[in-house]
Structure formats: C-alpha cells, structure tokens
Amino acid sequence: MVKRCVVCLKQDTRSATSSFHRFPVDKNLQQLWLTILNRLDLTDVSNHRVCDSHFNSSSFKINKNKNMLITKNSKRLKRGALPMNLVASTQSTKSTCSVSTQTELDLNDLSNLFEKLSLYEQKIFRTTICIERFRDDDTNIKYFTGFRSYNMFCLVFEL
C-alpha cells in the first residue's frame, strides 16, 4: 500500500526524503492529532500517515548511534509528539481570490452612460450602409441602387 500524508497528500516514493508517521494508538492523543490536523472526518486511522513536514524538528528523536546508517525512515517521533498547527503553513500555500462588487451607483453617471450608448448606437447606424438610411434621400438611392426613388426600390423587391 502506498503511503500518503492525510494532510498534504504527499506520497512516499523511493527517492523521497520524507518520513511518514502513524497516528498514535492512544485514543486521546489520536483525537488531539485529528483536531490539530483538521481531519475529524477520519474514523479509522490505522492505515493513515502524516509526513514529517507537519512536525517541528524538536518532535523527533536524535539518533545517537553513529554506526547506524541513516535512511529516509530513520526519523522517529518522540512519545507524545504533536503535529504543528497548520494555520500558518496553509495560508502561505493557498491563493486567495477576492470578489469586488459595486456598492455605490450614482444615478447621474448611469444616465450619462445611457446617453452615450444611444449616441454611439446612432453613429453606428449612420456609418452602416442599409437601405433604411436613405429612405428620404432619392439622390443616394439612385447612386447606390440605380432606382429613381425608395418607393420604386421597395416596389421592385416586393414583387
């Protein structure tokens, strides 16, 4: 079974330098760990682990045997060691997103914006070439369509 930290989901690999630690057998201490790690949803912790990054360096036993080869699993927790409170470490890793809303809406500004909008719509209509634009201008109707008048143009296209 692959070891995975219940807090940060770090996975144990052969090249990893992290060590993974079981939850304490003592139910009171176990409950304290779950509270500190904010994992009260876990009921059976027999197969769950916490990686060494969630403990202070003072939580580990010092290996005094110099002849012993230090491996990645040589870190041992002291009896009664508690994980760190993760509030500070999670705040630095999580990105925050803010939502801003417009709370003050000035009616004068809003009416000015609507006036500008209608002016721009009129400008767009004037720059767009459509037959309705030349309804009252027979000279332009003759220039763009070849028909004598707008009425003649409509008569031909109604047939």
Automatic annotation (TrEMBL):
<feature type="domain" description="THAP-type">
    <location>
        <begin position="1"/>
        <end position="86"/>
    </location>
</feature>
<keyword id="KW-0804">Transcription</keyword>
<protein>
    <recommendedName>
        <fullName>THAP-type domain-containing protein</fullName>
    </recommendedName>
</protein>
<keyword id="KW-0131">Cell cycle</keyword>
<dbReference type="InterPro" id="IPR026516">
    <property type="entry name" value="THAP1/10"/>
</dbReference>
<dbReference type="GO" id="GO:0005654">
    <property type="term" value="C:nucleoplasm"/>
</dbReference>
<keyword id="KW-0479">Metal-binding</keyword>
<dbReference type="InterPro" id="IPR006612">
    <property type="entry name" value="THAP_Znf"/>
</dbReference>
<dbReference type="GO" id="GO:0008270">
    <property type="term" value="F:zinc ion binding"/>
</dbReference>
<keyword id="KW-0862">Zinc</keyword>
<keyword id="KW-0805">Transcription regulation</keyword>
<keyword id="KW-0863">Zinc-finger</keyword>
<dbReference type="InterPro" id="IPR038441">
    <property type="entry name" value="THAP_Znf_sf"/>
</dbReference>
<keyword id="KW-0175">Coiled coil</keyword>
<comment type="similarity">
    <text>Belongs to the THAP1 family.</text>
</comment>
<dbReference type="Pfam" id="PF05485">
    <property type="entry name" value="THAP"/>
</dbReference>
<dbReference type="GO" id="GO:0043565">
    <property type="term" value="F:sequence-specific DNA binding"/>
</dbReference>
<keyword id="KW-0238">DNA-binding</keyword>
<keyword id="KW-0539">Nucleus</keyword>
